[in-house]
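pipeline/complex-builder :: batch 7 item 3
reading input block
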Amino acid sequence: MGLGDADAQLMLRYAAGDARAFDELYANHRNGLWRFIGRSVRDAAATDDVFQECWSRVIAHRENYRPEARFATWLYRIAHNCCMDHWRTVARRGARETADDEAVAAAADDAVAEPLAAALAGERGERLAAALERLPQEQSTAFLLYVEGGLSVAEIAESTGVNPETAKSRLRYAAAKLRQTLGETASD
Amino acid sequence: MEGRDDEAPFPREPWQRLLGESGNRPPETTDARIRAAARRALTPRSRRWWLPASLAASVVLAVLIVRSEFDTVRRPVMTESAIPGDSAPVHKAAEPEHSVLTDAETGADVAPPVPRVGGPEHELRAASELAEEVVADTGLPASPSTQRELAAPPAAAAPAPSAAAAVASAESAEPESLSPETWYARIRKLFAEGRRAEAERELEALRRAYPAWAEKNVKADELR
């Protein structure tokens, strides 16, 4: 039984009234989900709100949960929806959606040329975080769903409402741009 | 986390390592808040008894208010229609509007009401007709006009509640304000009741007020 299945069992136990199962489930996903939301929302204050909203929805829908997909897929889909709601609220989404994949590819060289404050600090994680913030929203969401949430390309496509080819394209552009920004560190 | 799709565009692990190095994690207070919410959601909601109770109380209160409103609206209407002219003076009861109301109440197919053309004279005539009905109801000897009235089809007669009201009004009214027929009926009733002194006094007053009418209609022998 993989980790995803174990999480699904924990969720079922929590829905049946086992509070400790929720603690375990929360511990398994709190950091990854926090990073996913933080890098999607890109607002420290809003991250906490969206994170809590996400877990509130998990709690509220515990009785409707069916282990048809992996728990992580379900969880990150909720998180993605929470982020979407947040973007709609702050009316930032429109500005972020202007760049399509071709535009990102064309802008990749510019991103490499830009000096990164986080890179100068020397911390690779922080450099990656800074580089992620420079990605278009669709690409960073796809990248974070893939890396943090462990979603497959098909699951990312379903969660974000695009076809699998578009989802894969976004992932490739994101990875390429991040590699260039970080000097191929991550791809080693 | 392991990838499940065969066509993964790139490996996850190096990126996961890098992202984990950023040390970004939720604050302790957020952890505590979420865990508390998860536990709270599991507690039974037995303490919410007050919600249905307050709803039921609201419904009962609303029904009571509506019913009391209906009662206050309906009561005056019932009083007016059930006891017409109960406390009204006689001349009120004798107005044409009253006869229209009476016809409508009895459902009689009668001619439309005569428009009010005369002043006090018309009122006197209407009052006298009403008084004759009173006489018929009380069993006292009827005047010729009363007999004509009685011979008429019953549909045209006024309903008993109106006549009773007229008797009550006539008894309590000032004699001078009555028509001679009504006044005379009242005098005859006084005689019949044995209140002779009072009856004699009123008979004298009637003769003074309506000498011609009294000469023609008053039969002292009958009274005594």
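note: Residues 98-122 of chain A have pLDDT under 50 and may be disordered.
queue -> next item
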